[in-house]
Design brief:
- The complex is a heterodimer of chains A (286) and B (161).
- By secondary structure, chain A is an alpha+beta fold.
- Chain A has helices at residues 14-24, 37-42, 78-82, 85-90, 92-99, 104-107, 112-118, 124-132, 149-152, 226-232, 239-252, 263-285, and strands at residues 7-10, 28-31, 50-53, 63-66, 69-73, 135-140, 143-148, 153-155, 158-159, 166-173, 178-185, 195-204, 207-216, 223-224.
- Chain A is built from 12 helices and 14 strands.
- Chain A has 3 domains: 7-53, Uridine Diphospho-n-acetylenolpyruvylglucosamine Reductase, domain 2 (2-Layer Sandwich), CATH 3.30.43.10; 63-173, Uridine Diphospho-n-acetylenolpyruvylglucosamine Reductase, domain 3 (2-Layer Sandwich), CATH 3.30.465.10; 178-285, CO dehydrogenase flavoprotein, C-terminal domain (Enolase-like, domain 1, 2-Layer Sandwich), CATH 3.30.390.50.
- The longest helix of chain A has 23 residues, at 263-285.
- With 161 residues, chain B is α+β, with helices and mostly antiparallel strands.
- Chain B folds into 2 domains: 7-83, Beta-grasp domain (Ubiquitin-like (UB roll), Roll); 92-160, DNA polymerase, domain 1 (Orthogonal Bundle), CATH 1.10.150.
- The longest helix of chain B has 17 residues, at 144-160.
- The relative contact order of chain B is 0.15.
- The chains are: A alpha+beta (286), B alpha+beta (161).
- Chains A and B meet through strand 1, helix 1, helix 2, strand 3 and helix 6 of A and strand 4, helix 3 and helix 4 of B.
- The structure holds FE2/S2 (inorganic) cluster (FES) (2 copies).
- Residues 103-109, 139-141, 143 of chain B line the site of one FE2/S2 (inorganic) cluster.
C-alpha cells in the first residue's frame, strides 16, 4: 500500500502555506502530524492533488497562556502537551485527554491543530474543546477569524474551514473557579474510545453553580449533555444527585451503535463515566 | 515560493551512514528503507499505523515509518533495527529479548525494539514502557509476558552497570 500520486510542497513559512492554499484551494490538503491523513492516503480514501507539509515551519508550535485562554499552536505535538507543565497546571483535563490519544509512537507526531481539524467523532480533544467552549483561529490571505468549536466542528471528519484557510492555533478558555476532567472507556489502551466524557463544574459553598458536560465517541460530533448540566444547578453534588445525573445522561443521549458497541452499551458507558467523573469532583470539593 | 514537486532529492543519516537519494514524494519512509536502502529489518504489516511493526527512530523519537513520507525525513537522523546490534554482538536490549524468549516468530520484534530504545533514551521507566509503549505494538504470537520480562531484565542489567 502506498499513497496515490500527488504533488508536494514542504512550506517554510505560514505565508507560503497561505499562498499555496489560495492558489490550490480545494485541490490541496494540509499535512500536519499525518497520523490520520497518511493512513487515509495509504488506503486511497484521501487523494490530495497537492500536499502542503507544515512540519518545517518555525513558530507554529507553542503553548502559552494569553489572558484567560490556553493557546496551543496548531503544530504542537500531542507528546508536548502531555508533558507540558503549563497545561498540567492550568488545565490538567487536557493533559489527561491528550494522553489518551493513540500510543506514544503516535503522540510523537500527532498535532493539536490536526487533531481538532480532523473532527474525528471518537477523538478526545474536540470533546475537551466543546466542554470548555473553546475556539480555533483560522487564517488565510484574506485575514483571520476566530471560530467557536460549535461552528467549527460540523460532523464526522468535517469542519467549517474554507479551502484557503488554515487553523493556526486552538484556544482553550481557562475558567476560574471551575474544575474540568476527562475520562473514557476503550477496548484496549490506546484504541479509540467507545465513549468518553469531558465535564467541568463550578461549586460554590458546596452547591453546583454551573456545569458543562460533553460526550465523545457516541455521535458524529461532541454531544453537549445540557439536561444533565441543568439538573445539577443549585444542588449539592452528593451520591443521590450523581445517580440522578447519570440516569438523565443515559436517557438524554442518542448514542450511535456500530460493530464496536451497541447504542445501548454506549449509553451505559456514558452513565458510568458520569458517575465516575462527578464522584471525583464531589471528593475533591470536600 | 517553491512549486509543488513529484520527485525530490533527500539527504539523511541512516544508522550512522550519510545517504543521498532521489525519491518520489509519495514514497513512504517504510518503503524507502526497505526497497531503496534494502533495510528489510523494518517490517510492514498494516501500513496504516495500527500494528507498530514499522516503528523506527527519527532524531531519537519513535515513530511509525508507514505514516511518514520519505521526503519528510530529509535532514534527519534515522535509526532502524539494523543499527542496534548484529548477529554475534547483540545490543543489551536485544540480548535481554533473546535471553528471556521475548520473541517467537520475530515479526513484531524490530518495531518493539526501536520503540523501547526511543523511550529508554527519553528516560521512561520499565513500568511505563511495559504498559504504555507495548500497547502500541501488536504481537501476533501474543508473547507480551515474555517481552515484559525482557524489558525488566534489560533494566536490571542497565541499572547494575
Ligand atoms: S505497518 Fe506501520 S504501523 Fe503497521
Ligand atoms: S513474536 Fe511473532 S508477532 Fe510478535
Amino acid at each position: 500500500m502506498r499513497p496515490g500520486a500527488f504533488r508536494y510542497v514542504s512550506a517554510i513559512s505560514l505565508d507560503e502555506v497561505l499562498q499555496n492554499l489560495s492558489e490550490f484551494g480545494d485541490e490541496s490538503t494540509l499535512l500536519a502530524g499525518g497520523q490520520s491523513l497518511i493512513p487515509l492516503m495509504n488506503l486511497r480514501l484521501a487523494r490530495p492533488e497537492v500536499l502542503i507539509d507544515l512540519n518545517r515551519i518555525p513558530g507554529l508550535a507553542g503553548i502559552d497562556i494569553v489572558g484567560d485562554e490556553l493557546r496551543i499552536g496548531a503544530m504542537t505535538r500531542a507528546v508536548d502537551v502531555v508533558t507540558n507543565s503549563t497545561v498540567a497546571g492550568s488545565l490538567p483535563a487536557l493533559s489527561r485527554a491528550t494522553a489518551f490519544i493513540g500510543h506514544p509512537q503516535i503522540r510523537n507526531r500527532t498535532t493539536i491543530g490536526g487533531n481538532i481539524s480532523h473532527a474525528d467523532p471518537s477523538s478526545e480533544l474536540p470533546g475537551v474543546l466543546a466542554a470548555l467552549e473553546g475556539s480555533v483561529t483560522l487564517r488565510s490571505i484574506r485575514g483571520e477569524r476566530i471560530v467557536g468549536w460549535n461552528d467549527f466542528i460540523v460532523s464526522t471528519f468535517t469542519n467549517s474551514r474554507e479551502p484557503d484557510e488554515m487553523v493556526v492555533d486552538v484556544r482553550f478558555p481557562l475558567r476560574t473557579g471551575w474544575t474540568f476532567a476527562y475520562d473514557e472507556v476503550a477496548p484496549r489502551h490506546g484504541d479509540y474510545p467507545l465513549a468518553g466524557i469531558c465535564a467541568g463544574v463550578q461549586i460554590v459553598d458546596g452547591v453546583v453553580r454551573e456545569m458543562r458536560i460533553v460526550a465523545v465517541g457516541v455521535s458524529d460530533r461532541p454531544v453537549v449533555l445540557s439536561e444533565v448540566a441543568q439538573a445539577s444547578v443549585g444542588r449539592e453534588l452528593d451520591e443521590t444527585l450523581i445517580k440522578e445525573l447519570s440516569k438523565i445522561g443515559r436517557e438524554e443521549l442518542h448514542a450511535n451503535g456500530d460493530a464496536h458497541a451497541s447504542s445501548e452499551y454506549r449509553k451505559w458507558l456514558i452513565g458510568t463515566l458520569i458517575t465516575r467523573i462527578l464522584g471525583n469532583f464531589a471528593l475533591e470539593s470536600r | 515560493m517553491n512549486a509543488p514537486q513529484t520527485v525530490m532529492a533527500i539527504n539523511l543519516v541512516v544508522n550512522g551512514v550519510q545517504v543521498a537519494r532521489e525519491v518520489e514524494v509519495r514514497t513512504l519512509l517504510s518503503t524507502f528503507l526497505r526497497d531503496d536502502l534494502g533495510l528489510t529489518g523494518t517490517h510492514v504489516a498494516c501500513e496504516h499505523g495500527v500494528c507498530g511493526s514499522c516503528t523506527i527512530l527519527v532524531d531519537s523519537q519513535s515513530v511509525r515509518s508507514c505514516l511518514l513520507l520519505a521526503v519528510q525525513v530529509d535532514g534527519t537522523n534515522v535509526e532502524t533495527v539494523e543499527g542496534l546490534g548484529s548477529l554475534g554482538s547483540l545490543s543489551p536490549l536485544q540480548d535481554a529479548m533473546w535471553r528471556e524468549h521475548g520473541l517467537q516468530c520475530g515479526f513484531c520484534t524490530p518495531g518493539i525494539l526501536m520503540s523501547i530504545e526511543g523511550e529508554v533514551r527519553s528516560g521512561a521507566s520499565a513500568e511505563a514502557i511495559c504498559d504504555e509503549v507495548l500497547s502500541g505494538h501488536l504481537c501476533r504470537c501474543t508473547g507480551y509476558q515474555n517481552i515484559r520480562t525482557a524489558i525488566h531484565a534489560y533494566f536490571a542489567t542497565k541499572d547494575e552497570s
